[in-house]
Design brief:
With 347 residues, the protein is of the alpha/beta class. It has helices at 53-60, 92-100, 120-132, 156-170, 179-182, 202-211, 218-230, 238-251, 256-270, 275-298, 328-331, and strands spanning 25-30, 47-48, 51-52, 66-70, 81-83, 107-112, 137-141, 147-155, 187-191. The protein folds into 2 domains: 25-211, Spore Coat Polysaccharide Biosynthesis Protein SpsA, Chain A (Alpha-Beta Complex); 234-298. It comes from Streptomyces olivaceus.
């Protein structure tokens, strides 16, 4: 297989584009590997929460100016630049060098493609720690305190420096372990057992799939999956929409809840609005639902009006149907009104 990059020193970057945004970052995603512990399965394509692992990572790095994926090209949720290590299967260090050639930013996020719980806030945290300190890189540590160099943000100049030194000493990065590079860097460590969780086995996949369905995670996971599937980048306050659905269901009818939220989204989409437009449209729809409820309360029939001849709280007298049979009390025999008295003393 031919590498996509031009020849040169490992990791030599392209010339920065004119007007490149200062303070931005690029992302390099390593999505190759044989996945032997998964029986050779296509690990980046395995789904967690309905989304491929690679797409989940790409969403977490959505703020990157450029995203390079080192792997065979495939459909992805976001546009990326593809690269391959040379030689194929040359290991993570060779893959990093291949991806780094396509970057121009000084700050580079380097991640593997098997991180189901990596999110945008974690990426921002890594980049902020890198910018605020003097280290060459900031990486996460896992639940056991082990370094995770493929969940990290690095200074590109430091990576290129060490890659060049390895090229001089070993002829290139192929076949070398990643620690040969990271061991020469000044690193800051950030503990995060969740974001650093990677999927190496089928048990890991099962754990990840179970966790996203836990209470407190499932709604956010579902919304993220739906946004990716629909190609939506808009971030909105889901609480506003849930409140609207509740008001529509209670004030109008249950089927009004999904229909109303759909109409709000459709209206905002037609107007090409942002989060503020969603909030305003939801407010208008919620006000409408409350007006429906108020009208229903005003026009609800009153309780039966009291009889003019009796008090309002008097219990109504039961009326027996004409053909109803008399009860036992009514049929018990008694003296006739005009019967003569019995003359007997003990009567």
């Amino acid at each position: 297989m031919t590498a996509y990059e031009s020849s040169g020193d490992p990791g030599a970057g392209a010339r920065p584009a004119p007007g490149a945004e200062p303070g931005g970052y690029d992302a390099v995603v390593l999505a190759g590997g044989a996945a032997r512990r998964l029986g050779g399965a296509d690990k980046p394509g395995l789904r967690v929460g309905g989304r491929a692992l690679l797409d989940r990572v790409l969403t977490a790095c959505a703020g990157a100016r450029a995203t390079v994926v080192v792997a065979e090209p495939r459909p992805t949720v976001r546009p990326v630049t593809w690269a391959r290590e040379d030689p194929p299967g040359g290991g993570p260090l060779a893959a990093l060098a291949a991806g780094l050639r396509h970057t121009t930013s000084e700050h580079v996020v380097v991640v593997s493609a098997d991180l189901p719980f990596l999110g945008g806030p974690v990426v921002v945290r890594l980049l902020s720690a890198l910018a605020d300190g003097a280290a060459d890189g900031v990486l996460l540590t896992d639940a056991d305190g082990r370094d995770q160099p493929l969940v990290a943000a690095y200074r590109a100049s430091a990576l290129r420096r060490e890659l060049a030194a390895l090229a001089r000493g070993h002829g290139g990065p192929a076949g070398l372990p990643l620690r040969r590079l990271t061991g020469a860097l000044r690193l800051t460590r950030v503990p995060d057992a969740v974001a650093s969780f990677d999927c190496d086995t089928w048990d890991d996949i099962a754990t990840a799939r179970a966790r996203i369905r836990e209470h407190g995670h499932v709604l956010d996971e579902w919304i993220s999956a739906a946004k990716d599937e629909l190609g939506i980048d808009l971030d909105v306050d889901t609480g506003v929409l849930l409140d609207l659905a509740r008001d529509a269901a209670h004030s109008v009818a249950r089927p009004a809840a999904p229909l109303t939220t759909f109409l709000v989204g459709y209206a905002v989409g037609r107007a090409q609005g942002g989060p503020e437009a969603v909030a305003e449209a939801a407010r208008k729809a919620a006000d409408l639902a409350l007006r429906w409820a108020e009208e229903a309360a005003e026009t609800r029939p009153d309780a039966a009006k009291p009889d003019a001849a009796g008090p309002a709280d008097a219990e109504p007298t039961a009326t027996k149907p004409a053909d109803a049979k008399p009860d036992a009390a009514e049929t018990r025999p008694g003296p006739a009104p005009d019967a003569a008295p019995d003359p007997r003393p003990d009567a």
